[in-house]
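the two lines:
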Amino acid sequence: MTPSFDFLTAEERALGDRFRRDGFIVAPAEDRAALDAIRDLMVGLARHRLGMDEGAERPDPPGRLLDRIGDVVPVEELNAFRLAMIGGMNAQPWLRAAYFSVARRTLSAIVGSELCMQRRVNLSIQLPDDDSSLLPVHADTWSGDSPFEVVLWIPLVDCHGSKSMFLLPPGPNAELERNLHRFAARSVDEMFAAIEPDLTWMDVPYGHFLLFNQNLAHGNRVNREADARWSMNCRFKGVFTPYADKKLGEFFEPITLRPASRIGLDYEMPAGFHE
Amino acid sequence: MNERPETLRSGYRGYIGSRPVLGSRIPQHVQNLVIRDYAARSGLTFKLSATEYAMPHCYMMLEQVLAELPGLDGMIAYTLFMLPERRGRRQEIYRRILDTGACLHTAVEGLVLASEADIGRLEDIWSVQQALTHMAPVRF
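prediction for all of em together
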């Protein structure tokens, strides 16, 4: 089927072409104030968790504590620390609306205007040289996500090289999926070695977002940079597109239902007729 | 909403089913495990679950739990989608829960009905799910 692009604006078409060709879009935050509020929230939660509330002086830039979190949180305490951060941030009623606003126009162009959003935003923290928080190469669709979902990935620090994540572009990914069964008896590391030359490492400075196609193989490796990676991720999909194992209600929630859909959902045909 | 002294209320009644939900059968002991875990994580006192009868569209046990609500803090249903399919009937249930000053939790979704403002959120999810149910299934 030939897609009909004729009804899209030039901007929507360009974004869509880019997304389909590369599998991702990196762009400046559409609502920088919202992104800064999220980062400030995380800095505040981290300071609170680490008992730094009393020290009123904050001479460093806001992101410095996040970058250097490995100086005060040892690897063995990292997961408990991360879970506390996730609990704290998701307890803020404004978090998801702010997160959405960081890429609202791009999400509308790539996914649509009536969206479902994941109910809990995730957080990854990857300390330098730590191999305990790795996400081996995978595609989300292989483990229960609908192919209609996209991931909005937002770094709270500058992310590049091994401090970031990798993505396999659509062409090589199609080849990987054709040959995936050949890796059935082999390790994920062997799969990584096979695709490594084709990988794109995401360069996403703070102040930008990454929107990527989670049907493509992706993951991360040991962070060999000097500072820690902090990145948040959250899935979006069209409300009326098919769901897989991540269900409506328990995982996704409609966030931008439009009036015509609400009217349609409320509509009941006149009843009471009999043969 | 009727405000009642907290001392007269005790715990949250579980509500599980014996019919498939959205086409899936969930063993009753698994439903109870999920509810118990939700209650423990949320700091709620769990009271033994009422099990809905298997006959389609039968909500007799739900009615019993609703009648019991004045003496409870609320109820924990295994899932939102165990509630009646008919919107008017769901609205009536929300109303009865709120009018007794109790609340409804749904364990799988982790959703809470504690005030008027929560109804819209629950109904958005329910109504979209009902619309999706009428669409042709897609295999990935």
